[in-house]
Amino acid sequence: MFVDSHCHLNYAGLVEDQASVLARARDAGVATMLNISTREREWGDIIATAEREADVWASVGIHPHEADAHPAVDTARLVAMAAHPRVIGIGETGLDYYYDHSDRDRQRASFRAHIAAARETGLPLIVHTRDAEEDSAAILAEEMAKGAFPGVIHCFTASADFAWIALDLGLYISISGIATFKNAKDLQATAKTIPEDRLLIETDAPFLAPVPHRGRTCEPAFVADTARFLADLRGVSIEELGRATSANFFALFGKARA
C or N terminus of the chain, fewer CB within 10 Å? Predict the structure, then answer.
């Protein structure tokens, strides 16, 4: 019924008992998971998990926090790794000005390199943006004008204005467990308005466990709780929400469908 479009199965908190984590996800109705990379040294393990588990797929990318540490990861390197049959997305990448763990110019250069890889491969770009709406929107618009590419704004927490900029550029928006938090009223209002055919759901596990699991290590099974909350918020059945978001995932990540 559900797809977890963004999780980190090889992170501490999940990797130690990955088989049980996957079993609980399947028991909760999660039929597909996209295991996201953030550093080059993770790529081998993340791809190996996808090779071993038929319902798990992989991405290759460098998180903006890691941009300074990966100057050699360029478009060519990403394109080469994306040729693997279990790699279906480029990222996560983007801009994070909240923590500024990497130089902003280096973040922007890395972001553009990932966009070029998405454009060249046709694989969706997986975008992280935090406290960087203006630059994220500008880069996405500039790069889209050079040539279209598919993509998703993951773990969406930005403004409604940014949501519509992304949607107008043809991107998808993925909602995480943050939407279930009591103080997330603005995000909830935005989540109600996202077109049904552009909506994805995710956990970002092991982070951001939704209500009623707050304070626990998040895992892909919990995407069902986010789906239930969103279904109520949008006035649809959980079955309808599950079907729509799953269909959207395979429309965007066409390599998984094929």
Answer: C
Q: Is 160 exposed, middle or buried, given 0-12, 13-18 or 19+ CB atoms closer than 10 A?
A: middle
pLDDT in tens, 122-172: 999 999 999 999 999 999 999 999 999 999 999 999 999 999 999 999 999
Spatial contact of 209 and 216, defined as CB atoms under 8 Å apart: yes
**What Rg, from alpha-carbon coordinates, does the chain have?**
17
User: In sequence order, what DSSP letters do the residues of 130-195 get, joined into one string?
Assistant: ES-HHHHHHHHHHHHHHS---EEE-S--S-HHHHHHHHHTT-EEEE-GGGGSTT-HHHHHHHHHS-
Q: How many CB atoms lie within 10 A of CB 98?
A: 10
Provide the CA 93 distance to its chain's centre, in angstroms.
10
At residue 209's C-alpha, the angle toward residues 206 and 214, to 5°, is 130
- What is the Cα–Cα distance from 105 to 95, expressed in whole angstroms? 10
The two tokens of residue 44 are 């081998």
Residues of the chain falling short of pLDDT 50: none
H helix and E strand count, the chain? 10, 8
